[in-house]
Specification:
By secondary structure, this protein is an alpha+beta fold. It has four helices and 14 strands.
Length: 232
Amino acid sequence: PDFEIEVRFVMLRSRLQLIALLLICLFWTGIADLHADAPVEFKWALLMDTPTGLSAVDFSSTPEIAKGATLQLYLKPEPSTYLYLFLLDSSNVFTPIFPGSQNYYAHQDPGKEIRIPAGENRFTIVPPPGQEKFYLLASPKRLVKLEKLIDDYLYQPDSINTQAELFKEVRLIRRAHSKFKQFTETGMPVSGTRREIRGQGATRGSGDRETFVATHVSAVGFYSRILRVNHE
C-alpha cells in the first residue's frame, strides 16, 4: 500500500509539473503573439547640409555622397517603439550609433526626437571610399540582450570580440524577425526651428525654419532595414 501511494504521488507530481509547464508555454506564447501584433511607428531621415538648408538623402536607390559632405541623422519614434541603429562602415568596423549611452532605455522613454550627432554637430564623409551600411531596427519591446551587448561595446569600444558579438546578434535578430514584412513607408514633411549651421557652403541664421521630408514607417511586430550609402 505504501508503495502504491508513493507511485500515485509521483504520478500526480509529474502531472502537476506538466500542467505548470504548459501554462508557462501558453503564457509566453501569448506574450509573443501580443508583440507580434503590436504596432511599430517612427520617422527617420539621413540629412545632408546644402546651400539651401538641410535636405533628406533620397534612398529610392543607393545614394552617392561626395567626400566632405556633412550629415545628420533624424529619428522620431512613437512612445511605443524602441529604435536601434548601427553602422558598418567602409573600413568594415561595426559600431552602435543609437542608443549611444549605457542603459539608455532604463533612463529614457522612447518617443523623443533624436538628432545624431546632437545639435549643430555633423558627421563628415571621409576616406576610405566605399559603402556605409546603417542597420536600423525597430521593435515594440526592448531588445534586452542587444542592449546588454551595446553596453558592453560602450565599455570596451576597441574590443574586436565585442564588435563581433554585437554584429552577430543584430544578424540573428534580423533573421529571427524575417517573417515581419507588413509595413508601409511614406514621405512626411518635418518642420522646426534651427540654429546657425555652417557646412557645404551653407550659412543660416538662428531662428530660421527648417523643412525636410522624413520617411514615416508604420509596421506590425518588428521592422528592419539596411540603409546603404556609397561615398567617394
